[in-house]
Design goal:
Blueprint lengths: L25 E5 L8 E6 L4 H9 L6 E4 L15 E4 L6 E5 L4 E5 L4 H8 L4 E2 L11 H7 L6 H4 L6 E7 L5 E4 L5 H7 L8 E8 L1 E2 L5 E8 L2 H11 L5 E6 L11 E8 L22 E2 L11 H14 L3 E7 L1 H5 L5 E2 L10 E9 L3 H14 L6 E6 L13 E9 L5 H14 L3 E2 L12 H4 L3 H11 L8 H6 L3
Parallel strand pairs: 2-4, 3-4, 15-17
Antiparallel strand pairs: 1-2, 5-6, 6-10, 7-11, 8-9, 8-10, 12-14, 12-16, 13-14, 13-19, 18-20, 18-21, 19-20
Helix pairs in contact: 9-10
Length: 474
């Protein structure tokens, strides 16, 4: 398996594509963030739009897929035996209106960079997942969501337009009003309609870079669900950490954190001089030598007990920075290495409101199995958008991280799948690495509409990924 330049992989008869300035292809072994299901592809890192278009023409019969920072947990940014375009060099800000917060950026720019650039001017990204190490193109392809979905929707609800490179080499400017079918097929479409080159985004105005956070520790699942239902209209950002190993009367005990960006008047006097100061970066890096059995039922049980006990029963108005509130794991680089070489599996599902018994059954099933999830997060979603494959819809979403060597994990997840499906739920494609393709139409009833649009703009199936092949999306 070589990591060097690959000769003869691409077509050489493309006019202008064989320039010495064109980046060489490198054969690489790729995985998602969970470090499972590796595959080998030829990776090219174009520097310009023209190089993206030239690389597209150089594809082989195995097709092409775009890749950002590799934070999808499964295989949607892999293309075994084919071409993968690393888009992270296309990372410029093309235009910014500091009055309205409307910006135009290249697709390879990260949310981290947007926060770094625009928070000092009083603007935050409209939606952020649990990491800011995500490109704009990836955020569109997965239609990422965050702690504010109940209030502000998902990322693409704030995207006004994007330039999309199609399979035939043409570029279209696509918006919800102009070519809405293509827009909503691309939103959450995991890169299978084309390559997003740039996007116009409406940022969120803020007065300070600090978040005023209220924390509550709840005794069980009933209490946390009731409290979260009360917070929807009170807070923009809400999330609960849940102890998935707790049993009996403590089943589902949780810590709820709710927040709003602090106003200038909320800050102590000494912080008002620099209210929009932001410092990113990380404090440490996990070495790639961790034993695969470190996260287990015993260690996670100890951690969960400590984490629950250290949380205050009730605290209001605590000021936290952006990293501490939105992206605590970004404080540690390569944290996925903590699971060792075997990696982990992230499982995220949603069940609609009115199906709370299903959520309870799932939590009971995980607790009874003693399956250790190192991070279990419960959120509430508001109305979904028109994205054919967009994940959110009104309901409860639970995210769990299981080490792949968890005893009985495959059978456990199959049981969870059945509960989710029988309760009109679905799993998140950006987290998936094991979904049964037969379940896709039940989870995503607009799948055929997506396929119809995709067939029109990519009739030869040029844009393809390991996930697309596995699930029959391509």
């Amino acid at each position: 398996m070589s990591d060097g330049p690959v000769a003869g992989t691409f077509r050489s008869d493309v006019p202008g594509a064989s320039s010495g300035a064109f980046p060489a292809a490198t054969r690489k072994r790729l995985t998602g963030w969970a470090r499972t299901s590796p595959s080998v592809a030829d990776v090219v890192a174009p520097m310009t739009r023209d190089q993206v278009a030239a690389a597209l023409q150089r594809r082989t019969e195995r097709g092409v897929i775009a890749r950002g920072l590799g934070r999808s947990y499964g295989d949607p940014a892999q293309n075994s035996g084919g071409l993968v375009l690393d888009m992270t060099a296309l990372n410029r800000v093309l235009d910014a209106d500091l009055e309205t917060g409307v910006i135009t950026v290249e697709a390879g720019i990260s949310l981290d960079r947007l926060i770094e650039l625009f928070v000092p001017f009083g603007f935050f990204v409209p939606v952020t997942p649990g990491t800011r190490q995500v490109t704009v193109g990836g955020a569109i392809g997965a239609d990422v969501h965050g702690k504010n979905h109940h209030a502000d929707g998902s990322f693409c609800d704030h995207v006004l337009a994007f330039d999309l490179l199609l399979a035939d080499g043409t570029v279209r400017t696509v918006s919800p009003d102009g070519e809405p079918d293509l827009f909503w097929a691309t939103v959450g479409g995991m890169g299978l309609t084309g390559i997003v080159l740039s996007a116009v985004i409406r940022m969120k105005p803020i007065e300070t870079s600090l978040v005023s956070v209220d924390t509550d520790r709840t005794r069980d699942l009933d209490e946390i669900m009731a409290l979260m239902a009360e917070t929807d209209e009170k807070y923009t950002y809400t999330v609960a950490w849940l102890d998935c190993l707790a049993k009996g009367r403590n089943l589902g005990r949780s810590v709820l954190t709710c927040g709003e960006f602090a106003r200038l008047e909320d800050l102590p006097a000494k912080k008002r001089a620099k209210p929009l100061q932001f410092k990113g970066g990380s404090l440490a890096t996990v070495p790639d030598i961790m034993p695969g059995r470190l996260p287990n039922k015993f260690t996670m049980g100890l951690f969960n007990e400590m984490w629950y006990r250290k949380a205050p029963k009730h605290k209001v108005g605590q000021l936290q920075g952006i990293t501490g509130f939105f992206h605590p794991l970004d404080g540690v680089q390569e944290w996925n290495r903590a699971y060792g070489k075997t990696g982990f599996l992230q499982y995220q599902f949603i069940v609609p409101f009115g199906h709370e018994d299903a959520l309870r059954t799932i939590v009971e099933t995980i607790s009874a199995a003693g399956a250790p999830s190192s991070l279990t997060v419960l959120k509430r979603f508001g109305p979904g958008n028109r994205g054919f494959l967009s994940f959110p819809k009104p309901g409860w979403t639970l995210t769990l991280d299981f080490p792949t060597n968890t005893p009985g994990l495959a059978g456990l997840l199959t049981r969870l799948d059945e509960i989710v499906l029988s309760n009109d739920g679905r799993m998140y494609l950006a987290k998936d690495s094991r979904m049964d393709p037969a379940d896709m139409p039940r989870m995503y009833p607009r799948l055929e509409e997506f396929r119809t649009v995709r067939a029109k703009v990519d009739p030869d199936g040029v844009f393809v990924s390991d996930q697309a092949r596995r699930l029959g999306l391509a």
